[in-house]
Design a protein that fits this description.
alpha+beta; 6-stranded antiparallel β-sheet; 566 residues; single chain; 29 strands
Length: 566
């Protein structure tokens, strides 16, 4: 806090009672309150405008959290996630809005624990950022109601949610320890040659497609690792944990319909992030560089090298520098895959249910019917081994409809009544039976790196930045709308806002300069965002979460104004 805090907020609000609504903006600044400082960051121009932005700063002494709860970046993120949830619980059904997210524990702008890196950043202090809908009578200020929100409810939130003595100490520590265990487990994967881990006893199915909480009831089958895949890991707090370790390479998940194949893949997809206690997936993790790939009819593609998958087009157009405003299912999936690898993905997740069939398989009968010189597509089955062997990229693939992937899989897992079984040996026996199919390729080429033109990434509308989440479906960015419906690892609107802010940060800080490759710019962004969600607030003070580089790259690649240099 650089500005001197004022006193007498309640008196000021009573004085403003009945004044024009726009006078609320005179409250901007810091106000001294009992036990904390209230900062009005942005006023509310009229009753129909976005809520005012308010930050609550609680000193380390008043908050009173023991140092072992916030002495590392992971534990600070976990504690902030817990406190945001407590603050949201206290403020529920009021004018105060606290973004606490869902089942994931992300680095959010809504709550931060001081780390002392900046001169005015007190270690162990707590900051909560909220939206407050300031009350009015028509277009006049309702002073008493505003005083109730700012001078009663916010102090109540501080004392009930942000002070250690008011909380359940065992619950706080368990939350923080759970997140630290998941992070430690994820970091242990690469040294062990694994790409993912699913703990015994994990609950993978969710309640519904719109409710990410764990399914409950007598029909839920806890996960149990097959013996051949069982791995034991020692964690800082949970101790010795057993579960299924998924090795690097090509992993095929097979089984009948409705037996849990896609449910397992969705759990691995979510495993790039930590989860709250009780989620069921607390110890289901995947490497941080894991990306889901799917088909996406109609998306834009800008100068992507897809010639590994698409050889020759009937029009004669080249595919090593391919652009389109309306990609087909196969070309969209090919582009998404090479874009993910360009951004640094080292594990890919693909489900046959959302993939382009003609890019995944081409069996012997179709090879005989349609000669290769009449078919521009090379199926993924012929490239997946080289992708791992030559480029170090593993693939986990759900495939229940084609046996051709048995020939290239390193391990095969079968889901039967929601239980996993190792069927690798049986699959290798079947692989000795000739199918008559001929491989059409065996080399996945080196990545072609592109250089974004910063002038094509423009958030401005009539001189002001316009960056707004549209739920989880898309992002309004300047004059453009970025469709994110097929970017599977987007989790909530705050995450979408974070993607937009990160895109703007890439431009503002000169990381996109027309000379750097996209991967190089993302490296610089990662370095910036290691400082937390505070970095994103340099764009605009609003609820947001720190995004991964892969979703930022996906949004950039879907920005229809984007121009790439090679």
């Amino acid at each position: 806090m650089t500005r001197r805090a004022r006193v007498g907020l309640a008196e000021e609000l009573r004085r403003l009672d009945g004044a024009p609504y726009g006078r609320y903006r005179s409250l901007v600044g810091a106000w001294r309150m009992p036990g904390f400082t209230l900062e009005v960051v942005r006023g509310q121009a009229d009753p129909f405008a976005p809520p005012a932005r308010v930050a609550v700063h609680v000193s380390a002494e008043h908050a009173g959290f023991p140092g072992e709860l916030w002495n590392t970046p992971v534990r600070r993120r976990a504690l902030a996630g817990y406190l945001a949830r407590q603050a949201a619980r206290v403020a529920r059904r009021s004018a105060v809005q606290v973004d606490c997210g869902g089942q994931e524990v992300l680095d959010r702008s809504s709550c931060r624990i001081g780390d002392g890196r900046a001169a005015e950043d007190e270690p162990g202090a707590v900051t909560v950022r909220t939206g407050v809908e300031l009350p009015g009578r028509g277009r006049r200020i309702d002073g008493p109601a505003a005083a109730d929100a700012l001078c009663r409810l916010l102090p109540e939130m501080v004392e009930r949610a942000l002070v250690y003595e008011a909380l359940d100490a065992v619950e706080v520590r368990h939350f923080v320890d759970t997140v630290e265990d998941a992070d430690a487990l994820r970091r242990s994967l690469q040294p062990r040659g694994l790409v993912a881990f699913v703990a015994d006893g994990a609950v993978l199915p969710r309640r519904s497609g719109v409710d990410d909480r764990p399914l409950t009831g007598p029909g839920v089958v806890p996960f149990a690792a097959p013996d051949a895949f069982r791995v034991t890991v020692d964690l800082p707090h949970a101790g010795r944990v057993t579960g299924m370790g998924v090795p690097e390479g090509i992993t095929l998940i097979v089984g009948g319909g409705f037996h849990g194949k896609s449910t397992l893949l969705r759990a691995l997809e979510a495993g790039v992030r930590d989860h709250v206690p009780g989620d069921g997936r607390e110890l289901v993790v995947a490497r941080a560089d894991t990306v889901t790939i799917r088909a996406e009819d109609g998306r834009r593609v800008e100068r992507a090298d897809v010639h590994a998958f698409v050889g020759h087009l009937p029009s004669g157009a080249g595919t090593d520098d391919f652009s389109t405003d309306n990609a087909s299912g196969s070309t969209s999936q090919a582009a998404s895959l090479v874009e993910a690898v360009e951004a640094g993905a080292r594990t890919l997740l693909i489900d046959e249910d959302t993939a382009a069939t003609n890019l995944m398989i081409r069996d012997a009968r179709m090879q005989a019917l349609v000669a290769k010189d009449r078919e521009p597509l090379t199926p993924f089955v012929d490239l997946v081994r080289s992708l791992h062997r030559d480029r170090g990229v593993s693939t986990i693939l759900v495939m229940g409809g084609s046996g051709d992937y048995i020939d290239v899989a390193d391990q095969v897992l079968m889901m039967d009544a929601y239980r996993p079984y190792d069927v690798t040996a049986r699959a290798r026996e079947l692989a000795r039976i000739p199918t008559g199919r001929q491989a059409e390729a065996d080399v996945f080429p080196a990545v072609t790196h592109r250089r974004p033109d910063p002038s094509s990434v423009d958030s401005m509308v009539r001189g002001r930045p316009r960056i707004r989440a549209r739920g989880t479906d898309g992002l309004a960015f300047g004059e453009e709308y970025v469709d994110l419906r097929a970017v599977e690892q987007v989790v909530d609107p705050g995450y979408v806002t974070g993607i937009g802010f990160a895109m703007e940060l890439l431009v503002r800080r000169g990381h996109l300069d027309g000379r750097r490759t996209l991967a190089e710019a993302l490296d610089l962004l990662d370095r910036d965002l290691a400082g937390g969600a505070e970095q994103l607030l340099a764009v605009y003070d609003d609820d947001c979460a720190v995004p991964r580089r892969f979703e930022v790259a996906a949004a950039l690649n879907r920005l229809r104004s984007l121009r790439m240099n090679r």
